[in-house]
Design a protein that fits this description.
By secondary structure, the chain is of the alpha/beta class. It has 15 helices and 13 strands.
Length: about 400
């Protein structure tokens, strides 16, 4: 039996069974009411630790989720990102095995004191890319924990390959409109391409305001990220992006489409010429995996886990971050060479089918569960070009 414990929403029932999986939705209204006061208390008691890393962050939700899992007689708890609740889970449900699954770099960007207990209490730690797992492994090398890499999965029934179309160049960005996603770099790169490709268009899909600064632990040390600090504190980043695109040269050629549902997004992928993904930091790159599944060639930045998702020169092109000139050059190369773009697209879909299909991901996670339950010490890492095997 599988249970998912999620935040309650007014339009959804407290308990639902979907394809054999029981979803229990736990109220967070009181947590939200208490959040401002708890945030102030956290800053007073732990001034050097970000609020999201403390057990004062949604404490009632997590406590109730763990207690409900115990009542449901769950043998294994799979906790995502918020490692501070691993010790609480160990205390409240001592019989369960615990897998901590990281989709970000907090375990090696937060202070060691803040996360060491969580790593020690987990039976296994999983990273969504070898970039994430390697950072954790290096920091906690002396701990006899299981460290695994399991890449994210893509639904190939939704993201189907497109048929090649003879159309004007159509560049696509998909993602949150937040500074670290580098959308401003893409707009500048597109400006450099605009005169050479007068029929080219850029569609920007996504919504949301700037990510809270404290969620970007460790990024402050990266030189190419330092100029973005003002957007996390004072400026409206999506509004600024629209100002950048509001020029006679770009106004009719850059469209902001907002967030789209998965089904619509799959069609948008199929209508594009290529995906441009220029983040300044990226643990994995889910939209890149989706685009590859949909048969799109990709231009992305060489940061974080993207070098594991995109094989440079084989399934796409990688460029340095925060470099609009290099980004424009790479995009221009694919627009000017449709044969190479088609070759990248075909190779990318095959690569995605091998590494990102859900059967493969599920089998890997099943092995993680098996090893954690048995107390086996070996680690699991997907065999991908450029990834270390430990």
């Amino acid at each position: 039996r599988v249970f998912i414990y999620a935040k309650a929403k007014p339009a959804l029932s407290p308990t639902e069974v979907c394809q054999g999986v029981t979803i229990r939705r736990i109220p967070v209204r009181i947590d939200r009411l208490l959040r401002p006061a708890l945030h102030r208390l956290s800053r007073l008691c732990h001034p050097l630790s970000p609020f999201f890393s403390r057990q004062l962050y949604y404490p009632l939700f997590y406590r109730q989720a763990i207690l409900t899992a115990r009542a449901d007689r769950c043998d294994l708890l799979h906790i995502h990102n918020f490692s501070q609740y691993v010790p609480l889970a160990r205390r409240l449900h001592s019989q369960a095995k615990i897998v901590l699954h990281m989709h970000c770099d907090w375990l090696w960007q937060l202070s060691a004191k803040a996360v060491a207990r969580s790593v020690a209490d987990a039976d296994a730690v999983v990273g969504c890319s070898e970039y994430i797992t390697d950072g954790v492994r290096r920091r906690f090398a002396l701990q006899t924990r299981q460290f695994h890499t399991v890449l994210n999965g893509v639904d190939f029934t939704t993201f189907k390959a497109r048929a090649p179309a003879d159309q004007p160049p159509h560049i696509l960005f998909v993602g949150r409109l937040t500074p670290e996603k580098g959308v401003h770099v893409l707009i500048e790169a597109f400006r450099r391409l605009a005169s050479r490709w007068p029929e080219a268009k850029l569609d920007i899909v996504g919504g949301g305001g700037p990510t809270v600064t404290e969620f970007l632990q460790g990024m402050r040390d990266e030189q190419h990220l330092a100029p973005l600090a003002e957007f996390y504190r004072h400026r409206d980043y999506p509004d600024w992006l629209r100002q950048l695109a509001d020029t006679p040269q770009l106004r009719e050629r850059v469209r902001f489409l907002g967030p789209l549902p998965q089904e619509t997004l799959a069609d948008v992928y199929r209508q594009a010429t290529l995906l441009a993904h220029p983040p300044l930091a990226e643990p994995f790159g889910m939209v890149v995996a989706e685009a590859m599944a949909a048969g799109l060639p990709v231009v992305a930045t060489r940061v974080g886990g993207l070098a594991e998702v995109v094989q440079d020169g084989s399934t796409g092109l990688l460029v340095p971050p925060a470099d609009p000139k290099a980004l424009a050059k790479a995009i221009g190369e694919l627009l000017a060479d449709p044969d190479t773009a088609r070759r990248f697209a075909a190779a990318g879909r095959l690569y995605a089918q091998k590494h990102f299909n859900w059967d493969h991901v599920t089998n890997q996670m099943r092995e993680v569960y098996r090893a954690a339950s048995a107390g086996v010490s070996e680690s699991l890492t997907d065999q991908i070009p450029g990834a270390a095997t430990w």
